[in-house]
Design brief:
This protein is α+β, with helices and mostly antiparallel strands. The chain has one domain. The protein contains three helices and three strands. The longest helix has 10 residues. It is globular, with a radius of gyration of 12 Å. The relative contact order is 0.23. The chain binds zinc ion (ZN).
Amino acid sequence: MVALKAEYGVRSAVRWHVVPDLDGAALCRRLLSPIAEMRPIADMTQDGIEPGQLCQPCLAAYEDGVTTVDAWSETVAETD
Ligand SMILES: [Zn+2]
């Protein structure tokens, strides 16, 4: 199940990552806190989350149809 997961930065800024595995890394390979806030993936395309708060590598991977970290790694390797 793909979902969005929050990463909290300084000054309470939030960045939302796409996580294909709720206990694993985001598509950009960043490891997020297991207790970070989650949102449904649909919030990414609806009005839920501002575009500036989305992780761009995660967004690009997801729009390419990548929904697993392994597939994303292969995509990166291919473009090398
Ligand atoms: Zn990300």
